[in-house]
């Protein structure tokens, strides 16, 4: 094993990312470079084989199905209804539009399945309204991108599905485990926003608190949408369908809501919705394919074993080890996009986590929370780019504004790491301590 073979593919990927090459192509080109350097030992055809094998999992079928369900709900007027519900709930408080942004992201967490989709939607809708009403552009970009992190935790989350596939962990338990951390993150963001809104005199959206009748009407109007996560968890808990099958069930469920419930979508709109879901799903699946080939390079060069040995040598305490992993992930997250880091690092860290007897579901929540926070961390945060480009905010202004939100999210990350029951008590309650769903 030469040092060139060990480091050149990784350095090539980092260089391509620095040149703003899409993550998928950066990983694929780096992996291809490794195979070209080792044609004497590994047939070049293995490159294509490893890319194809990266998608050979039944659990991954849930991914395009949940993406399709989210696209259907977006076409059915769901965003408008939930935005009205968010206004009824928090429209009377200081910085109401910013608070509505977090509430809406929480309500949408079980629907869009994609933090990137949430960030784009929030920036285009509430973000622009915030700018028009006197909120600072950097503040609007920060809150719309930060709120989108909640989607990565509340089911159905693409990150949870991908991690469950890579770690061979129960996706049903992961879905349940993400709910409490997602709600805690929403509360943390809202408290931070409240302090900043009072300091900057950001006004409420409405003069007085909504009446009980108005609140009831808004809840009823959004009830179909809010029932979707309940359908997923209840169906998997009582064995009506598996987590993978729940994707197909939810697609049929939301189609019924869209066509017969809200009646804002027609069958002739379906081809456009299908095309959108295919594009969104393909981008994620291509990344998984590229990561399969790149992961083969890491495995062949025994990079996971080297990293595990280094971390094991640093400490034998499971809790200290988890905090140390968090520190490594935070550093890597500033250089590698979150989705790519999840796909690359999960196979590398999992043997170490299992050896330390850390629950895979708990680690999954910590890992995804950590890497999604990287989405709002300069210089390569994907959520940061989406909101900043939509609202035309320079990176330097964004970086200054995001500091208090990053501090709060880091504190929450430590709390989730130190207290695993915050993640595990709900899946243990729903599925039991030993059940696999």
Question: How would you sum up this structure, described in words?
Answer:
This protein has helices at residues 3-18, 23-37, 45-53, 62-75, 78-90, 96-112, 115-132, 137-147, 158-167, 171-200, 212-221, 223-226, 228-237, 243-261, 270-300, 303-314, 318-333, 338-355, 360-373, 382-391, 395-418, 421-431. The mean pLDDT is 82. It has 22 helices and no strands. Helix 6 packs parallel to helix 8 and helix 8 packs parallel to helix 21 (395-418). It has one domain. The chain is mainly alpha-helical and 437 residues long. The chain starts with a helix and ends in a 6-residue tail after the last helix. The radius of gyration is 22 Å and the shape is globular.
Give me the secondary-structure topology.
Blueprint: H1 3-18, H2 23-37, H3 45-53, H4 62-75, H5 78-90, H6 96-112, H7 115-132, H8 137-147, H9 158-167, H10 171-200, H11 212-221, H12 223-226, H13 228-237, H14 243-261, H15 270-300, H16 303-314, H17 318-333, H18 338-355, H19 360-373, H20 382-391, H21 395-418, H22 421-431
Helix pairs in contact: 1-2, 2-15, 3-15, 4-14, 4-15, 5-6, 5-11, 6-7, 6-8, 6-10, 7-8, 7-20, 8-20, 8-21, 9-10, 9-18, 9-19, 10-19, 10-21, 10-22, 13-14, 15-18, 16-18, 17-18, 17-19, 17-21, 18-19, 19-21
Characteristic terms for this protein:
437 residues
Query: What is the radius of gyration?
Result: 22 Å
Separation, N- and C-terminal Cα atoms: 41 Å
**Largest sheet geometry:** none
Number of strands: 0
Low-confidence stretches: none
The amount of beta strand, in percent, is under 5%
How many domains in all? 1
Number of helices: 22
Q: Structural class of the helix and strand makeup?
A: mainly alpha
Mean of residue pLDDT?
Answer: 82
Helical content class:
over 70%
Shape: globular
């Amino acid at each position: 094993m030469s040092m060139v073979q060990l480091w050149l593919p990784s350095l090539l990927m980092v260089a391509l990312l620095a040149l703003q090459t899409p993550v998928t192509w950066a990983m694929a080109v780096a992996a291809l470079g490794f195979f070209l350097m080792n044609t004497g030992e590994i047939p070049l055809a293995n490159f294509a084989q490893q890319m194809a094998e990266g998608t050979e999992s039944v659990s991954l079928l849930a991914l395009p199905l949940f993406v399709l369900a989210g696209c259907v709900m977006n076409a059915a007027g769901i965003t408008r209804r939930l935005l009205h519900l968010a206004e009824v709930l928090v429209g009377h408080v200081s910085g109401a539009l910013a608070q509505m942004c977090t509430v809406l992201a929480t309500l949408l967490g079980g629907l869009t399945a994609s933090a990137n989709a949430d960030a784009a939607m929030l920036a285009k809708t509430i973000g622009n309204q915030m700018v028009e009403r006197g909120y600072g552009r950097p503040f609007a970009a920060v809150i719309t991108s930060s709120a989108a992190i909640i989607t990565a935790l509340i089911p159905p989350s693409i990150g949870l599905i991908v991690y469950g596939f890579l770690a061979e962990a129960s996706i049903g338990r992961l879905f349940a485990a993400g709910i409490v951390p997602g709600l805690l993150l929403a509360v943390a963001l809202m408290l931070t926003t409240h302090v900043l809104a009072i300091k900057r005199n950001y006004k409420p959206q409405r003069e007085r608190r909504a009446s009980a009748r108005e609140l009831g009407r808004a809840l009823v109007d959004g009830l179909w949408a809010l029932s979707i996560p309940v359908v997923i968890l209840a169906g998997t808990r009582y064995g009506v369908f598996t987590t993978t099958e729940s994707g197909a069930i939810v697609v049929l469920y939301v189609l019924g809501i869209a066509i017969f419930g809200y009646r804002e979508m027609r069958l002739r709109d379906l081809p456009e919705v299908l095309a959108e879901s295919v594009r969104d799903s393909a981008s994620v699946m291509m990344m998984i394919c590229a990561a399969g080939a790149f992961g083969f390079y890491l495995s062949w060069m025994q990079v996971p074993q080297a990293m595990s040995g280094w971390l094991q040598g640093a400490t034998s305490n499971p809790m200290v080890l988890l905090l140390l992993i968090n520190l490594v992930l935070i550093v890597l997250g500033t250089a590698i996009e979150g989705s790519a880091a999840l796909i690359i690092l999960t196979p590398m860290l999992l043997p170490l986590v299992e050896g330390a007897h850390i629950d895979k579901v708990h680690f999954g929540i910590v890992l995804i929370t950590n890497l999604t926070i990287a989405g709002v961390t300069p210089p390569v945060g994907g959520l940061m780019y989406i909101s900043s480009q939509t609202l035309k905010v320079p990176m330097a202004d964004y970086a200054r504004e995001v500091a208090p939100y990053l501090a709060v999210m880091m504190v929450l990350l430590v709390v989730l790491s130190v207290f695993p029951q915050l993640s595990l008590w709900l899946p243990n309650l729903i599925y039991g301590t030993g059940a696999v769903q």
